[in-house]
Amino acid sequence: MRLYSTNNKELNVDFATAVFNSMPQDKGLYMPVEIPQLDADFIENIGSYSLPEIAFKVASALLGDAIPAAALKALVEDAINFDAPARKLDENTYVLELFHGPSLAFKDFGARFMSRVMAYFLKDGEQLLDVLVATSGDTGGAVALGFLGVPNTRVTILYPKGKVSEIQELQLCTNGQNIHAIEIDGTFDDCQHLVKQAFADADLNEKLRLTSANSINISRLIPQTFYYFNAYAQLAREGKKKVVFAVPSGNFGNIAAGLMAYKMGLPVHQFIAATNANDTVPRFLESGVYQTRPSVQTYANAMDVGAPSNWVRIMDLFDDSREEVLKVVSSSRYTDEETLQAIKDIDQQYNYVACPHTAIAWLALEGYKRAHAEENFAGVFLSTAHACKFPDIFPEDIAAKIEIPAQVLELIDKEKGATVMDTDFKNFKNYLLNL
User: Fold this and answer.
1) Tally of domains in the chain
2) Which residue from 56, 146, 213, 333 could staple onto 111, CB 3.0 to 4.6 Å apart?
3) What domain range is 302 assigned to?
4) CATH code, domain carrying 352
């Protein structure tokens, strides 16, 4: 597998280099030189494959000879050892539950795969690997659990003060060992900017071996393609092959993975990028003007991103043509009030408790259904996190229905440990140099 920078297609590196460097020095993002087409027979008969079989097939096609087949198969089976069911709510509406991994969020797919890829490539005696990650909610917890105890690695997680839920914060700050948490007095965009500054700092890169665990790392994106293929397989078993995906979108890695799957041959009819008030992409698709804004806090905190990093990857997939993107992707945004009402509507209509991110995806799917009432398709909205992570958002009657998983109950009595810091890069740099 060879990869180039979105800022320079002449730059060409192997997979291991892209995994450990995360981001090219020109501040682009790595993308595959070639996106392979999966054979038509596999797609036609995808319903006969399990999730691990699908994951291995897709990973093999993308990675080529970067990891030998036997090692890759073992890696995939270890990383993706939980289910991702497409739960049927009515005849043509499904919710894709991506929260059955250890951190109760879809980020487990990317974080567990990436940690095992890095462990595979790390050699005994090599310099300690410093993994940096900014989180708006769920990424940090997934990365913490994915890398906890992995030899020769040290993880530093930056999260915005007061802008993650209590359970999300506990997942970041109670691990110890090789996991460190920094509470930034700012927004997610500030956290992300500090991480990007670190990668661009020559002094830091000379003294530390830095890599990222955010979705800017290509090894986070690859495993997220797996659940799109797997969802399609589940619907194909029911004879439904015209599929629309509604994807809650913040940093746009989730939908970027879906679009990569589409480019590999997954026959998706439409993707809907569902956002909250942080609506940089909907505004761009409507106006043709890409203008970032400072992020604002909402109930769907993992989507509170004003400058989504992965949008450049999506544009790259479509040769930087907004018109080509619009053939496959639509987008919409929703307020906190609409989100809360959607949570109530989903509960009343389906007796199903949806987290705020999931509720926004449902709203987008419902809007698309109304606009395309004459079409017959199966709609899948992605549920990216377990509802228990957002206890303060739900009305009491709905909150009472939430079953608290055992791993969350175990967190409650643990002691939190985080370093409080402002947004000055000099302070962050000194912290890293003195860890």
Assistant:
1) 1
2) 146
3) 54-106+219-399
4) 3.40.50.1100
Q: Is residue 77 part of a domain?
A: yes
Set 27, 88, 107, 263: catalytic member = 107
Tell me whether residue 295 is in a domain: yes
Q: What is the pLDDT of residues 186-202, one digit of tens each?
A: 998 899 899 989 988 99
Mean pLDDT of the chain: 93
This prediction's pTM:
0.89
> Model confidence over 318-341: pLDDT tens digits?
999 999 999 999 999 999 999 999
Q: 368 lies in a domain?
A: yes
The separation between the first and the last C-alpha atoms of the chain, rounded to the nearest angstrom, is 34
Q: What HEC string does the chain produce?
A: CEEEECCEEEEEEEHHHHHHHCCCCCCCCEEECCCCCCCHHHHHCHHHCCHHHHHHHHHHHHHCCCCCHHHHHHHHHHHCCCCCCEEEEECCEEEEECCCCCCCECHHHHHHHHHHHHHHHCCCCCCCEEEEEECCCHHHHHHHHHHCCCCCEEEEEEEECCCCCHHHHHHHHCCCCCEEEEEECCCHHHHHHHHHHHHHCHHHHHHCEEEECCCCCHHHHHHHHHHHHHHHHHHHCCCCCCEEEEEECCCCHHHHHHHHHHHCCCCEEEEEEEECCCCHHHHHHHHCCCCCCCCCCCCCHHHCCCCCCCHHHHHHHCCCCHHHHHCCEEEEECCHHHHHHHHHHHHHHHCCCCCHHHHHHHHHHHHHHHHCCCCCCEEEEEECECHHHCCCCCCHHHHCCCCCCHHHHCCCCCCCCCEEECCCHHHHHHHHHCC
- For 10-24, the pLDDT digits (tens) are 989 999 999 988 888
In a domain, 384, yes or no: yes
Summarised one tens digit per residue, pLDDT across range 383-430 is 999 999 888 899 999 999 999 888 888 887 788 889 999 999 999 999
* Separation of alpha carbons 377 and 6, rounded Å: 34
Active site residue 107: yes
Listed as own residue / partner, the contacts of 430-434 with beta carbons closer than 8 Å and 24 or more positions apart are 431/156, 431/182, 432/130, 432/156, 432/198, 432/204, 432/208, 433/204, 433/207, 433/208
